[in-house]
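Study this protein:
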Amino acid sequence: MTDLAAQEPRVPAPSRRALLGAAWTAPVVVAVGTAPAYAASAAARLAIDTFTSYGAAYTGAGTPSRIETKVQVRREWTASAPAVTSITVTVSFPTTVAAGGKPVSVSGTGWAAGPVSGPANGAYTYTFTWTGRLDNTTQSTSELLFHVKRTSVATTSTTLTASATSPQATSVSRTITTGV
């Protein structure tokens, strides 16, 4: 009897290294290809829930000497978005109603007053920063409450804009028309 295995030509088997290299090449290419799309969608989204402003601290003549403003920012619920740990809010007041200078008062857990710029383009812009943590269990900042000095004119209707930015989230702004 003849040995058939000895008569057939031998084809070398692929090495273990060649098999592992082929098995790992495709997933690495797929992962690299999908990373940018995932990273672009990973930012949290902010919303300005509360934004009100009105005249306050009325004088004997019936005109407000301050403008009271409230702002609250919310991180929208998204399972894959990162936590938000800092937010910067700016609110612009026309020079026709705001007197400029630092805020008279600022309150709200985690909130601090920042710089005031202007007058530029007919407005003073007040900056506030919040530090804390917004995630899927705690979604909103405490309410920022602040007062700014008002010019001595009768109550009037004006347009105000608030913007919120964060390194971990997309920016958002909201505009209101109110009597101050």
Notes: Strands lie at 44-58, 64-75, 84-94, 105-107, 111-120, 123-134, 144-149, 157-166, 169-179. Residues 22-40 have pLDDT under 50 and may be disordered. Helices lie at 4-7, 16-40. DSSP finds two helices and nine strands in the chain.
